[in-house]
Amino acid sequence: MPDPRANSLLLGSVFAVAIFLSVVLRRGKTRRVNLFVLFCGSVAVWYVLDLLKAWRADSHWRILSDVALVVLPQMAMRFFTAFLGDEPRGSRLVPIGTALGVIVLAGVVSPLGETRFMQGTLFAYAGGLLYTTVLFLYRRSRRVASRVERARIQVLVVGGALAMTFSLLDYLPVVGVEFPPLGPIFTLIYLYTLSQALLLYRLLDVYELVGRFAVLSALALTLAAIFYALVQWLGTSTWFFLNAMAAAFVILIVFDPLRTMVEQKIGEIITRERSEFESQVLMLRRRLPRLLTLEDIAGAVVGALEESRRFTHGSLYLLSADGLSLLRRGCFGPLPVPELEVAAARPLLDRIPGDEPIRRVVLQREREALLQTDEKDVRKIETLDGVLGILAELQAGAVFPVRGESRLLGLLALRDERMPEGFAPEDVALLSGLAAQVAIAAENIELYRQMKVRDRLAVVGEMSAGLAHEIRNPLGSIKAAAQILAEDSPPDDKGMLEVLVEESNRLNRVVTEFLEYARPQGGSAGPAAVGAVLRRCLQLVQAEHGDAVRCELSASDGLPDVPVDPERLLQVFLNLALNAAQAMGGGGTLEIVAAVRRDSGPTAAGRAGGHRRVAVRFRDHGPGIPPEVLPRIFIPFFTTKDHGTGLGLAISQRIVEDAGGTIVVRSEVGRGADFTVVLPAVAPADEQPLKTPPT
């Protein structure tokens, strides 16, 4: 009658070797993977030697089996302390366990190894050290702040305890107690769980684990049934080998479609959590096109991902209006950096391959591989360190590009606190689609904004001609009459008439500015020398405010010209400078910085653009602009001043945008405001295309 324990050991040996080989044959192994290879290999060797000891009652196989049992808990101890991160408790466990292992090893290879005392000591050592390792895992789970990670580590604790308990119970028949040999089955399930955790770079949850076992079981039963039916049908004659090969070919042909079908069906039944996450993302993608502001997009994306409980950290960064930085629009979990300068993030942006994400674990594997080579590429290692540093600032385990038609619009940074950080292929595909939908929604919002501006200008243009006629004609008559009456009026009446003339002049300026704003703009005359225009601007500011306003100008050498009429550029600079002076109450320090920057908007390929831009920043130290006012400052006729038309900033924005530039505003209440004018630079003469002379 076959020995159940021998059959169980044979099954354990075969599958332990299979799991061992599946991990050994993988590329790019990390330290954790190498330690798992040793742990899994020690389990496989112990099963094989224990099987040989059961088959052959020989002292040599007994010694080798006992030695393997001494080594096994050593490998388990080292693997688990590394799998969850080296900690003080784990580091003390290793030397103590090693010392005990050396003592027990000396005993099992000595003549006393066969005695009942030494065998009892061996099992007490192995069981005690393995249970201590499980206890280490349990204590580690108690110190984890994340509820998700705590639950998944506890799955390892329970699985490890079950595997070791049933492995020890396999020896009950030795003392006369019959018990089914279930130890190898639980141990193999546990090893498979760990191998999948290493493969996916995260701990599996219960749904995923059950789902994967269900898929494997269904595939195994189906393929076994196919093989058995074919072999039985073809018979077991002298052609058995050929018949078995034919059955194997049939299995290979149907394996891929069968696996896809089984995974889909099992997934629908068991992997409920993933299905819910996919449904949430799909609902979010359908909702995004209906949102009208970037703030709404960020709130919807961040809120949905947080509610899914799939991630513990998340943030959405979108490109600023000037293209010089990525601004955090929304986040959950620990706060990442509020702003990421594009120039500083260039190492990360240059590595974004199309629409594929950047994953921390992939970069870490690449770095470890470089460190293990004989000729270390220091430059590549430093670049990888820089990218990993940026990911740390973003609190990200993976960064998904939000890419528009021609350039990068933002980044979706996500992280799960599981260790090591990683994303399943299904997650990558799902989140890449979400990032693409965010890009489409952001571009649609910009198009909608431009349409609103055009519609507003069209309405203003239609009104402007009639408004000028209806206001200026009676206004001129009122002003002329007031001036004539003032000549022969007594002093008391003359003062009131002078007020009437001043108000007529003010109203005429309002009409003039309104007409200028509404007038269609032609091509930019230019070019304008930025440095010369700034110096002229400062002279006018000093003439109006004197020494009360201290102007500090910092301009880079060799500032290129910009394609704007010098007078219109002076109008923009003077308006921003005078606004800053007024914000400081007519006194204070106005900082003006002019510099050349490369076009910051990464292209569709993820590379930096080659066009230069001139950025001129006006910074005051006034009270700042309240958040509720900031979105409206460029709307015509909106003003917070007692005296003003509300057209200065609107006209300035129109001039700059007509030249292909933009005005970016940043303000913090109580700390002043920044207005940055960004304009394209005129190419040097040697870079401009040659014009064919007329014939």
How would you portray this structure in words?
This protein has 695 residues and is α+β, with helices and mostly antiparallel strands. The chain has five domains: 4-204, Rhopdopsin 7-helix transmembrane proteins (Up-down Bundle); 206-262; 275-445, Beta-Lactamase (2-Layer Sandwich); 449-518, Orthogonal Bundle (Helix Hairpins); 530-686, Histidine kinase-like ATPase, C-terminal domain (Heat Shock Protein 90, 2-Layer Sandwich), CATH 3.30.565.10. Helices cover 60% and strands 11% of the residues. The chain has 19 helices and eleven strands. It has helices at 4-24, 31-55, 59-83, 88-108, 116-142, 147-169, 183-200, 206-234, 240-269, 272-287, 294-308, 346-349, 360-372, 378-393, 425-488, 491-518, 530-545, 566-583, 648-658; strands at residues 313-319, 325-332, 339-341, 358-359, 398-403, 408-415, 549-555, 588-598, 612-619, 662-667, 673-680. It has a six-stranded antiparallel β-sheet with strand order 3-2-1-6-5-4. α3 (59-83) runs antiparallel to α4 and α10 runs parallel beside α15. The chain is elongated and about 135 Å long. The model is unreliable at 86-90, 600-610 and 686-695 (pLDDT under 50).
Task: Compose a concise summary of this entry.
The protein is an alpha+beta fold and 695 residues long.
> What is the straight-line distance between the termini?
107 Å
Low-confidence stretches: 86-90, 600-610, 686-695
Total count of domains? 5
From the spread of the alpha carbons, the general shape counts as: elongated
Give the strand tally.
11
Question: What structural class results from the helix and strand content?
Answer: alpha+beta
| Largest sheet geometry | 6 strands, antiparallel
Tell me the CATH architecture of the largest domain: Up-down Bundle
SSE order:
HHHHHHHHHHHEEEHEHHEEHHHEHEEHEE
Question: Percentage of helical residues?
Answer: 55-70%
Number of helices: 19
Strand order of the largest sheet: 3-2-1-6-5-4
Radius of gyration from the alpha-carbon trace, in angstroms: 38 Å
CATH topology of the largest domain: Rhopdopsin 7-helix transmembrane proteins
CATH class of the largest domain: Mainly Alpha
